Model the fold of this input.
Amino acid sequence: MTTRHGGADRVSTKAKLAEELVVLGRVLVRAREVAKLKQSAVAAKLGMPASYLSKIENGTRRLDVIELIRIAEAMGVDPAEIVRELQRALADV
Done:
């Protein structure tokens, strides 16, 4: 049966990108650790609870490009470097 928003076989974008989201999380963890920052410190700079960042780093929460830029800036990292590192990591998947 089809519904207004897709068929019964519809797969969410989050499910389609599950592996990639985990890779993004690993890239962000690595960047945060290189910056010698704790998750709670980055979350505080963002004005968000640590659970927000934890879900992103665990690959269970999607984020948009604006959020990615803000997270990178909170870590003092060039957002473009995060994207380049993500591209390299995804090439290995």
Q: What stands out?
A: The CA atoms of residues 23 and 92 lie 10 Å apart. The chain has a mean pLDDT of 88.
